[in-house]
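Researcher: I'm preparing a figure for a lab meeting and need a structural model of a single chain. I don't have an experimental structure, so a prediction will have to do for now. The sequence is pasted below. Please return the structure as tokens so I can convert it later.
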Amino acid sequence: MQAFGPARGMVRVHVDAGEHPFAVYFGRGARPIADCAGPCDFWAWPAKYRIRIQQGDGPHHDATIALHVRNSGNYVFVPAHGKMQNLGLILGVSGPVIGVVGLIFTAVGTLKPCSAPPSSESCDTPASLYIGLSALAVGAAMTAIGWPLYNHNRAHFQASDAATRASHARVGLVAMPRTGVGLGVTFAF
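Model: Understood. Here is the structure written out token by token.
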């Protein structure tokens, strides 16, 4: 007699959504491959799944969240952090807007004709060029901080070994091509 087991290539997945019941769907499928009242285990192929979490207060409080299964492992639900997610969205959207304004100021500053007499070698750089370059740098920084902040603070599933790592920031000296040394900052989520 032969025992039934998982198909070739399937991995064992443990999903924990806290006290909320949830259902797991493969692709656009209408029938769940797992329907769980609490943490549960099931076999799955490495792929993207939809998990419908029932939050309990009403039909509008349910959430559908993606689960990317790559290997066997434990996947833990991480709820959204609304204020930080909104801050990341505001930074991520306003950064490119400030960058476009900076680009316009930079273009105006570089295209402004020199008002110095032709015999004079000196021509002052217009202030709009400096304002534009500063706005470009601020917009790039806001965008680079905003979108990772938004993505990290939205509701998602993450592998439990990744959940134990702490977020941190590091500041240190880095080599610069022309000036020698500069100050660098890295963020790890």
